[in-house]
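**Paired protein data**
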Amino acid sequence: MLNIMQRLQQTTENYSIDDQLILPFDLRQKSRLRVMLKSGIEAALMLDRGTILRGGDLLKAENGLVVQILAANQAVTNVTANSQQSLMCAAYHLGNRHVPLQVGDGWLRLEQDHVLKEMLIGLGMITVDQLAPFEPEAGAYGGGHRHHHDAHDNLSRLPSARLRRHG
């Protein structure tokens, strides 16, 4: 089995892509995963904990093979509205629920969830279910989806002049 252990930094250096790996968002968040490359080669992802792969990312296997990540089509809901203010209101409510969200020009995209879809329809949004790649925002601190109890971990990354501890 091929071991893939290194994420290549996106630089001006051109890499020759040897293979591709197509994964939905939920699997692109896993640091340890057994996968099948597009060519049929079985591989083991063994990446740093907390790594979130994005479509277009490049990985390097222990044998030097360069593998490109592709975002798989998956069940998503596209959200539009009759006004920008209404769409921002929907984004606020989804963000308040810590929903991973892809933001486009005049639209939002989230993984399909019937409860959230009902809420959005109740807010007057136009929702369309489809199969499409899902690339949610990385978050305010550059990381992936984090839970509220992890928020204190981000304090050490803020400039000290702005750092205020509560309690």
